[in-house]
């Protein structure tokens, strides 16, 4: 058993962590923080956790957090980088769900996030928590930076092709749509039922902060000497709660076919418990991954042309955040990677 603390327990990724950890046999949650609801019982705020949690929210306090073996940060950007250095110094392991430690190039982080980075040395040390690429480094990491939700769906959809140089790396286009829980639990006008339901729209089409994270991850898997992966990324907001559907377009290199691409995916993800390569020309649905750590992928070659379309779906709060954080925890502590993550999606 390890002791775990969560900073940011009243948000959507925080409560998803609580839901998943309630079914994990190796974890005892010793602290969960909220500045605004300190003193409130977790089960009063989230009745879904009645009978599963006796915890009460407390204000973040470094001495309390340092009593845990592992601390999850489920907080907005900028929070973890201010608090993690002391915890790391005191020997605590940390999984950060925010973007604070994902990007290695600090000027790039500062430009996209619009604030100075206060812990650049830790950003250099942090391991990017995409197990399908960094499993070995995650196992021994003290600080893991969990990938963003769009970056998870998009990277998993292109990694086999870029590793094998099977597509033109400068031809990449990603259209991805997310459920509204991706925007967190704070009140925002555009997330009101009357604004978001029965509606569909793109946002940040001229530049979203996940772009540099995705490009960094894709370039990292390319063979040395390749032209760097370049991406056009347009996110959309869907009138649903959970799920990301990414439609990825790339030009196949001469000699590559739908069948050769499918074989690359089948081989690359053969032993991955959380990537499901579906039969060619399938249409994965967000509903098939709801509440799970699964990424389902399928490939298409419309009209037999030279464009390969990859469809990739995840649950933004699960494989896109909290369940992937648990997968990382399982790897860090040497447990079976699927522990606490085995349940299939909720249907209908
Ligand atoms: N929603 C999603 O699908 C995904 C989110 N993420 C990332 O995960 C992180 C959390 O997201 P999400 O759960 O949606 O966010 P929410 O806005 O729903 O929740 C944020 C939480 O952080 C706490 N918090 C806010 N400011 C501070 C602070 N200065 N110090 C300590 N605690 C603070 C809040 O509680 P209180 O103010 O009471 O302290 C609240 O519990 C974000 O960085 C987000 O970008 C990553 C992938 C997917
Ligand atoms: C629908 C929606 O608003 N989604 C969020 C992405 C949330 C997320 O995963 O991103 P970070 O962890 O990098 O913040 C957005 O586009 O800002």
UniProtKB/TrEMBL annotation:
EC numbers listed for it are: 1.2.1.38
User: Its principal location?
Assistant: cytoplasm
- Transmembrane region positions? none
Q: Where is the active site?
A: 149
InterPro entries linked: AGPR, AGPR_dimerisation_dom, AGPR_type-1, NAD(P)-bd_dom_sf, Semialdehyde_DH_NAD-bd
Residue limits of the Semialdehyde dehydrogenase NAD-binding domain? 3-141
Q: Does the keyword Secreted apply?
A: no
Alphabetical keyword list: Amino-acid biosynthesis, Arginine biosynthesis, Cytoplasm, NADP, Oxidoreductase
Indicate the enzyme's highest-level EC class: oxidoreductase
Q: Name its pathway.
A: Amino-acid biosynthesis; L-arginine biosynthesis; N(2)-acetyl-L-ornithine from L-glutamate: step 3/4
Would the keyword Oxidoreductase turn up in this protein's UniProt record? yes
One family from Pfam that matches here is: Semialdhyde_dh
Q: Which reaction does it catalyse?
A: N-acetyl-L-glutamate 5-semialdehyde + phosphate + NADP(+) = N-acetyl-L-glutamyl 5-phosphate + NADPH + H(+)
Q: Where in the cell is it found?
A: Cytoplasm
Q: Which family does it belong to?
A: Belongs to the NAGSA dehydrogenase family. Type 1 subfamily.
Describe the function of this protein.
Catalyzes the NADPH-dependent reduction of N-acetyl-5-glutamyl phosphate to yield N-acetyl-L-glutamate 5-semialdehyde.
Q: Which NCBIfam families match?
A: argC
User: Under what name is this protein listed?
Assistant: N-acetyl-gamma-glutamyl-phosphate reductase
Per the UniProt entry, what species is this protein from, by scientific name? Microbulbifer aestuariivivens
């Amino acid at each position: 058993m390890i002791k775990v603390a969560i900073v940011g327990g009243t948000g959507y990724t925080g409560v998803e962590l609580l839901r998943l950890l309630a079914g994990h046999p190796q974890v005892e949650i010793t602290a969960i923080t909220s500045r605004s609801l300190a003193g409130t019982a977790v089960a009063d705020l989230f009745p879904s956790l009645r009978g599963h949690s006796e915890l009460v929210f407390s204000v973040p306090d470094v001495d309390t957090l340092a009593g845990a073996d592992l601390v999850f940060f489920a907080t907005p950007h900028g929070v973890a980088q201010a608090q993690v250095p002391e915890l790391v110094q005191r020997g605590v392991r940390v999984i950060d769900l925010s973007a604070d430690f994902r990007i290695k190039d600090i000027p790039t982080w500062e430009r996209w996030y619009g604030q100075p980075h206060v812990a650049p040395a830790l950003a250099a040390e942090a391991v990017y928590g995409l197990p399908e690429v960094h499993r070995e480094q995650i196992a021994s990491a003290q600080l893991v930076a969990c990938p963003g939700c769009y970056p998870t769906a998009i990277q998993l959809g292109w990694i086999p092709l870029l590793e094998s140089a099977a597509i033109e790396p400068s031809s990449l286009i990603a259209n991805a749509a997310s459920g509204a829980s991706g925007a967190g639990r704070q009140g925002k006008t555009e997330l009101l039922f009357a604004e978001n339901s029965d509606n569909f729209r793109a946002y940040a089409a001229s530049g979203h902060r996940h772009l540099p994270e995705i490009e960094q991850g894709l370039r990292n898997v390319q063979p040395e000497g390749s032209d760097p992966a370049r991406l056009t990324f347009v996110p959309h907001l869907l009138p649903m709660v959970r799920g990301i559907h990414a439609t990825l377009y790339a030009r196949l290199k001469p000699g590559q076919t739908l069948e050769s691409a499918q074989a690359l995916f089948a081989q690359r993800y053969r032993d991955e418990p959380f990537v499901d390569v579906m039969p060619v020309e399938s249409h994965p649905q967000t509903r098939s991954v709801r509440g799970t750590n699964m990424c389902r992928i399928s490939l298409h070659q419309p009209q037999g042309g030279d464009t390969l379309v990859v469809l990739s779906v995840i649950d933004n709060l699960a494989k896109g955040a909290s369940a992937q954080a648990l997968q990382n925890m399982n790897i860090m502590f040497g447990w079976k990677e699927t522990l606490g993550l085995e349940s299939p999606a909720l249907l209908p």
